[in-house]
Amino acid sequence: MTITQDPWDTLRTSALLGTDRRPLPATALPLADAVDPSDPATALLELAALAAVRRRAGALPVPAAEPPGPPAPEDPRPELPEAAARRLAVLLTGRSGGSGGGTLANLAELLPQWLATARARGLRPPAALVPGLLDAARARSELRPDTVALAGPLGRWLAERNPDWRFVLRTTAPEPAPPASSTEQPDDTADHRPWHEGLFAERVTHLTLLRRRDPAAGLELLRGTWSTERAEDRLLFLDALQDGLSPADEPFLEAALADRSKNVRATAAELLSTLPGSALAERMAERARAAVRLADGGTHLLVTPPAECDERMQRDGITPKSPTGRGERAWWFGEVVAAAPLALWRRSTGLTPEQLLGLRVGDSVDETSSSWTDDLREAWARAAVRQHDADWARALLGPAPAPPARGAGRARSPRVTGAPAKLLAVLPPEERAVWTAAFIEVHGLGEAFQLLGACATPWTPPLSTAVVAALARAAASGAYPWSHSGVLGMTERALAPETAAAVEELAAGAAPDSAWSETFARLAGTLRFRAAMLAELAG
Amino acid sequence: MEERWSTEHVLSLAPDATSQKAAGKLSSPAPWSGTGTDGAALWGECRGSGRTPYRTVIELATPAYQCSCPSRKFPCKHALGLLLLWSGSPEAVPSGEPADWAADWLKARQERAEKPAAAPVDPEAARRRAEKRGARVAAGAAELRLRLADRVRHGLADQSTAGPWEEVAARMVDAQAPGLATRVRELDALPQERLLEEYAMLHLLATAATRVDELPPELAATVRARVGYTLDNADVLAGPTVRDRWLVLGSRDTSDDRLTTRRVWLRGAKTGRPALLLAFGRPGQAPDLALPTGHLLEAELAYHPGARPLRAALGRRYGAPEPAPAGPPAGLTVAEAVAGYGTAVADDPWLDSWPTVLTGVVPVHTPDGWYLTDGHHTVPVRASAVPEAALWRLTAVSTGRPLTVFGEYGHQGFAPVTAWTAEHRPVGLTTP
After folding, report:
1. Cα B40 from chain centroid?
2. Per-residue pLDDT reduced to its tens digit, B270-299
3. Which chain A residues are Cβ-neighbours of B338 within 8 angstroms?
4. What is the ipTM for the molecules in this complex?
5. Architecture of domain B334-428 in this structure
6. Where are the domains of chain A?
């Protein structure tokens, strides 16, 4: 053994084997002579102590090998006001777990609103909070679009470094980037590598982004690999064409009507039916005209349901068998009318939607039968939702229900066929709120859950007032708050903060320590919290 | 006008995450009434589910809390909620005179604090006790030396015949040497490649403990502290003190099932000396010492004696902490930090790390681990001492650009505690 070896290595070898088996090594350590060698084990420990302290005290810095990677791109947005940043810290600490009672709504429920507002204001969160934000969005995918937009370039930079945050790289922001920033952001979609090499979600993101920027290029990209895609993937890629759908897509979609997969065929047919002037829409219009005609004198509509579901109809997306077990001809009839362009009815009859809906509906064979009324309304309602036709949706919903005349007894539910919440969603936000407020004034909150869900948040002051009044009536009627828990949860998030004073009054008016007083107090607290939260974001 | 605390600071007082969450819900004005502050204290009544509201008082300087709620958490969610309210919405806590119930408590507290601790000591009995303990510790240390040597004799590769160290640790507890016991207990979990180093340092300590009376007084004090002799803060404060404006560099909490330990690092603005304050809390209770990072506190400190004094007792304060002037604290290059620790180890060979401010470093994450680089040199991050989330927060704050970081640097690497943003704001990396 030479003494030029690292003294630490020689000491370690002896210690591993034991001084019973290995003699005490000679070491080149300074001061080694001062160690008493009479007990080899003790001497070894003392030499090791010398070596260890010498190493610690005399350590030299490690030269830097390679420079660190590029820094995150600068974020030109102004930083959040300090109070808003503090609020975010509080909201993020409350992100895990349930509400557990308390005097405020579950803070996690307010995070989406905070994120959407901060994003809309174009603010930048403090860098220290970005990891917490990304963690929150990792656990809750509904937060991702707003979080990714808010986290900005720093979020993407972090996601490239931490695999836990990879979702950032495959999340699309629902709105296109404003043109101002497009000069700073490189056009990620010019490079098609994600499409050819990426994971499925990354490919969908790439296609969606490209489609928004350049619909024709998106179609071309999809067409290039279409024949080799799996059926489930084809279905979702087809969905991505909804953005920027135009007649240029028609030949491709027409070809997709012959796809091997039934779901792909149905989706292609649905897309084509919403494409005005498409050949499929024209074919459906022809079938619909044959199925419904205005009887002589224009007093009623006569229905002749399709007699069969021929091959051409099947190719256009109509399945021969009703999935609900409904009569086949009625099923085909509904499918045809729902897929036909609504404009056809005014064109062929000269009547408005309101006038058409006011007509009696009969069977062309048995004119006294009125069994087709509901089928026709139902199909029109589906068409109105699919084609985003506000005129038809308005006519189908009917006027907002008026309060019953004094002494007229309980109002009847308005005759709304189909899903009113879906029809409501077709209307402009203001109109939705007015209609829903009127509905609640007459019918209370019992059936309003889905309608309220279709309204834009925060609710308009009139709608908020209507909801608060309905809650007050429910409390006065002796109902239990938990029978309205669904609406209450939504109310905490959506009620206009200006209503806080009215709710506090209700809290004060309710029997002390009752469930309603607690409910109202909690609601008022949440409203105050939200008002403060939104005020902070305004700067 | 007193300086309000930041949300982060208030949340750092919370005993656990549940309390933080609960306090967040009480941070709006709605449940509160009769709130007020006179600059030295906060008070308010919080409406809960019961008929009578809870009465909450906070004395800010210490800080100390009092609440009429039955919670066993300390501080309770009401105290934290009131602090958050004051921190976030000052207009909701107007200036005024304390309500009677608040004034009563504050007065009683002040009287207690002024009462002299009268505990007459029999100096002869104390001397006998100290002598007896010295003998037991020396005997325990001698036994530890034998155990260590035995293992080296048989070889570290073959540990099958030796029992677990836990048993030896228990002997050290009996010998009234809890410091030795803690180090011994950790040996069982060490990887083999670090065993010889730890054995050697422990051997060195045990040897020093058997001959502590022959050592220079400072080194003897270091050895006693590491063996597990404790000093009362009051006794330390009876000795010489250093008055300075102390910059709070950062703090970190660690907890096991018996104790929460809070470390607060300071640096004197005039003297440049680092200091470490320790505070303890039972599980479910936050330690009662809370100093906001980045603030200056004018106070007297008394250092515990030692060859490399660091730990200190906080004595008289002159006013509340106030924000330090803009800009991160002055720091070192990586090379200077490495040299600085080396110098410190020369004084105290058992020193595992030394408080260090690094300037102009970038955190880098690689498949082999984390390190910090200043372009010329790198230091590895002591990942075992820092949660992964803290390192990502550091990365986010840096945005990949050089920044100032405070932490502990030692032979196992650098453990970051605080980072300063591009806007010169301190960010606690391990506080929520």
Report:
1. 24
2. 999 999 999 988 776 778 888 999 999 999
3. 59-61
4. 0.78
5. Beta Barrel (2.40)
6. 7-52, 82-93+106-179, 427-537
